[in-house]
Amino acid sequence: MPESVNESRSMSTVTEQEALEFHARGRPGKLEINATKPMATQRDLSLAYSPGVAVPVKAIAEEPSRAFDYTARGNLVGVISNGTAILGLGNLGALASKPVMEGKAVLFKRFADVDSIDLEVGTEDIDEFVNCVKHLGPSFGGINLEDIKAPDCFIIEQRLREVMDIPVFHDDQHGTAIIAVAGLINALHLTGRDMKTTKLVCNGAGAAAIACIELIKSMGFTSENITLCDTKGVIYQGREEGMNQWKSAHAVKTSDRTLAEAVEGADVFFGLSVKGALTEDMVRSMAGNPIIFAMANPDPEITPEEVARIRDDAIMATGRSDYPNQVNNVLGFPYIFRGALDVRASTINDAMKIAAAEALANLARENVPDEVAAAYRGNRPRFGPHYIIPVPFDPRLLSDVPRAVARAAMDSGVAQRPIVDLEAYGRELSARRDPIASTLQRIYQRVRRQPRRVVFAEGEEEHVMRAAVSYANQQLGTAILLGRIEQMEEMANQAGIDLEIPGIELVNARVSRRVEAYTEYLYARLQRSGYLYRDCQRLINTDRNHFGSCMVALGDADAMVTGTTRNYSTALEDVRRCVDVKPGHRVIGVSLALCRGRTVLVADTAVIDMPDSEELADIAEEAAGVARRLGYEPRVAMLAYSTFGHPPGERAERVREAVNILDKRRVDFEYDGEMAADVALNLDVMRQYPFCRLSGTANVLVMPAFHSASISTKMLQELGGSTVIGPLLVGLDKSIQIVSMGARDSDIANMAAIAAYNVGS
Ligand SMILES: NC(=O)C1=CN([C@@H]2O[C@H](COP(=O)(O)OP(=O)(O)OC[C@H]3O[C@@H](n4cnc5c(N)ncnc54)[C@H](OP(=O)(O)O)[C@@H]3O)[C@@H](O)[C@H]2O)C=CC1
Ligand SMILES: CC(=O)C(=O)O
Ligand SMILES: [Mg+2]
């Protein structure tokens, strides 16, 4: 792990404009509903709706638990708020809480494949709120209450738990407590402290704070050693102002009246209050090796930089993703509900919470898997002051935490559908992971560790500028925008884009000192292909693809991204004039298609029009290489319209010959063909060919020709709702990526990150 806070900052904050655009782009917001059954024919309609739907209706009326068999209830969580304590922003109302609630819903899906829907309830009246949620019970398998202020949240949760037969979980209380306790267990271990004698001060006495304190006490802390503070200062016995029964339960006998007094000599500080509440002087006054969890969102009570300026012996955590040790309930709620839903738990009890906290704490002590290690580029995170809690993208969270929660639910007798084989359950959980998101995350993390200089060749385009700003803001390296400086600045001004941020460089080819060197280089390459010196000079002076490619070729930049203003093949020709093919390789395009949790690589989606058998074999090898670099073990299907000889035809013959060539080359990955796409992608169909050499469904599809590759990926995207990334250009000696015309800023930024990731590979 990195040693200093500055080095370890892994992700910069986004700009306000980026945040607004992210939410406004395309379909506003972050959620949509998808049907899981076909709705295409009269028969489908008759089954899905009247008359067919009457059958499950009657079955559920007879036996309510059948709702879990015939409806989405068993995997559906309601994320419900009234917006009275939105993050640390205060009471901004139900409507304003919607972005956070949509966010929680997508995190449920992204991290644990739990479906959820946000419900913002426009009342601050406790009875009205309880009544509203209570009557929604039949819709859901669980209720996640969110951002409801204390003390209302305590009453609301308690009353709902009494009247509902599904888990009701106030995330800000218990989610936060579970994660904070997991981090605390490890921080105490690292500093050699005993729970019984550790002195903890918690600033904030609301939902999150009270729940944390209760869980901590239940795990062995002594009441006298815990001091709570709120806006009125220390919560001492006898205090009357601003009190409620939940605060009173934790009031201590003390002469301390302010946070500053309480925190002096304290071992641990928990911040669950507001930005900036802990001062540098307070940090100075704490005990040796202090543990400081500044968990207010979006801005902590004190930043790690501020703490680092004062002392270097602190273990520091925040609620944010851009510092190490993110103590945030995102590490909890998706997995806790996953486990609870899978055993149909009637509640989420203390045993399940403690099991989750212990599973999280244990994960941080284990060796991290390669997937996480890759993100740290050789600096494999190791249990220690900068790594006390797993990172949110750790794939083990999904297999370990729900399993621990499910086991605790069964052991404590609240599981209505126990799981017999927990090992098999762990494997099922792993299969729920969203693979492409982890892949992209890995790419981004690694680039952050090894930032690269990437040329954005079409620097005068607004969305290219936005992509460059996003690249720089995410601390992926330097984004070099090529263009006329004045034009770029004017365009940026008009569009409200700030180019004066660290990590952005503007380069004008016309006035560059490198024009001569690039021209010489290009002339040496092209003089025997009919180009005069002045032709090369003109290309360097006036064409940004040539200039940018030469920057990369001569080491002035690491990588380049282009393509928004010129069609793919023209941009590729420009690049090829300046950059060689990697020895022993072939230039092809590989697209990544993600559809319903499955990722397949499709090749060649960009370059070779009508490949012969040798070329098809080369494409298979290149694509398998890409799969490996992205962390997948390739299973390559050589696709055709026919399967293993039937129906016969010349095109299929060519694909079959490619398989023979791969046999002769003795390649080190699984491949087979020719086969139709359904054989490659559907295990049941594949099983009809028991001799097929693939050990599972294919994850690399080699198309018989460019047109079928391009048509199928575009159809997947437009009709199948797949996310398609690429084509990624592979086989060049330098890392250059070409996006398609009309690519959005996020596509360009992704491609720039991929280009940076591929440098030197
Ligand atoms: N990292 C994470 O995962 C999570 C972080 N949080 C963060 O914790 C904070 C509190 O959230 P939550 O408990 O839901 O909110 P609540 O509204 O329930 O509680 C807020 C508490 O903070 C206290 N407070 C506010 N300002 C100050 C101050 N200047 N000094 C001392 N105490 C203060 C309030 O005091 P009083 O009682 O006097 O009004 C109250 O006790 C937020 O910043 C939130 O983002 C919450 C959940 C998860
Ligand atoms: C993380 C969270 O739930 C909060 O800050 O409110
Ligand atoms: Mg919250």
Automatic annotation (TrEMBL):
Residues 173-410 form the Malic enzyme NAD-binding domain. Keywords: Metal-binding, Multifunctional enzyme, Oxidoreductase. The lineage of its organism: Bacteria, Pseudomonadati, Pseudomonadota, Alphaproteobacteria, Hyphomicrobiales. Pfam families: malic, Malic_M, PTA_PTB. PANTHER family: NADP-DEPENDENT MALIC ENZYME (PTHR43237:SF4). In the N-terminal section; belongs to the malic enzymes family. In the C-terminal section; belongs to the phosphate acetyltransferase and butyryltransferase family. It comes from the Bacteria. This is NADP-dependent malic enzyme.
